[in-house]
Amino acid sequence: MKALTWQGKRNVSVETVPDPGLVMPNDAIIEVTSSAICGSDLHLYEVLGPFMDQGDILGHEPMGRVVEAGSQSTLSVGDRVVVPFNISCGSCWMCSRGLYSQCERTQITEYGSGAALFGFSKLYGSVPGGQAEYLRVPHADFGPIKVGEERPDHRYLFLSDILPTAWQGVKYADVGEGDTLAVYGLGPVGQFAARIGVHLGARVFALDPVEERREMAKRHGVEVFDISDESHEAIRDATEGRGPDAVVDAVGMEGHQSPLGKLAHQAVGLLPDAAGQKLMEVGGLDRLSALHSAIDLVRRGGTISLSGVYGGQADPMPMLTLFDKQIQLRMGQCNVKRWIDELMPIVEDASDPLGIDDLVTHRLPLSEAPRGYEMFQKKTDGCIKVVLEPQAG
């Protein structure tokens, strides 16, 4: 089969690799019909190279049709399914509490990591990902989400990651009718987080340096701002001088306005893998501009919810400010299956209340995936969300 493989920093290529096969009786094989490029994929493309092996298959936002089903998979050939990005058993102590991203049967204990993820480095198990023609799905007796036939792929596809990630981020922010919410970053997760805030009745402000992203959010009732001190002041003015009740940081480790963090990322990329791994395991390598700005902006007694991924182990944090302002911090990998029952009716609603039809800016065959990564990373050609179609052409 054809699959998108990691070859080095900012270097991915489509290669011919062996077809996946059933390994365990609760496995399934799907023919991938759609697979999105996620902002987290860009961390592999840019920063997390020391934890990648040449030839690793990328991608953790897939959906498709079951073509083989293990005897214990609870699936049948022909089922249309979305595959959550985290691999969980559904029955361990963590899963029984809805903490599917911490599944005790798939945790990567070698690196002290939570549940295994598709297509996401040694840190999360080096499980072959879904930017490929076919995908082996472990724990297919629990993980895959069966979906109907009445909606196009993109209506369901984002249940794999970014839609429940944004939903969890806003739920952790604990905002609803009449509250105020600021969202840092209007990539795909930030777009959905802002729209979810509006859907739940909050007044939503969003900050991003890219005009196309701001214009997309504005179409969905979000008040948008560039990244600047003046924007913070305008948001404070709109919230009686206090700042918003909550902030969702949808940016994460590669924030734009963090030159020292950028230098650290570049240094890691120049080191041999063993040295780069060690530095990332003990160093403070994240670009923290979005998080520090969120701490500055949120009102006293407010909440900051982190949906953007961070990876540094010794990042400097303004603890005096956090303590003095009595800020609550919530964060973590999304527990995808925890939120599906709440999200499925919204996804299937003909009125499209979250504007899912207005997110994908580029659809590409798998053969053009390297171009998709480059566009998404450089934010060229108005690129906000790329969906790959492995069966196209």
From TrEMBL:
Cofactor: Zn(2+)
Protein's recorded name: Glutathione-dependent formaldehyde dehydrogenase
Record-linked Gene3D superfamilies: Medium-chain alcohol dehydrogenases, catalytic domain, NAD(P)-binding Rossmann-like Domain
Species: Rothia santali
Keywords assigned: Metal-binding, Oxidoreductase, Zinc
Residue ranges of domain Alcohol dehydrogenase-like N-terminal in the record: 25-144
Record PROSITE patterns: ADH_ZINC
SUPFAM superfamilies tied to this protein: GroES-like, NAD(P)-binding Rossmann-fold domains
PANTHER family found in the cross-reference section: DEHYDROGENASE, ZINC-CONTAINING, PUTATIVE (AFU_ORTHOLOGUE AFUA_2G02810)-RELATED (PTHR42813:SF2), ZINC-TYPE ALCOHOL DEHYDROGENASE-LIKE (PTHR42813)
One Gene Ontology MF term: zinc ion binding
Limits of the Alcohol dehydrogenase-like C-terminal domain: 188-253
Family: Belongs to the zinc-containing alcohol dehydrogenase family.
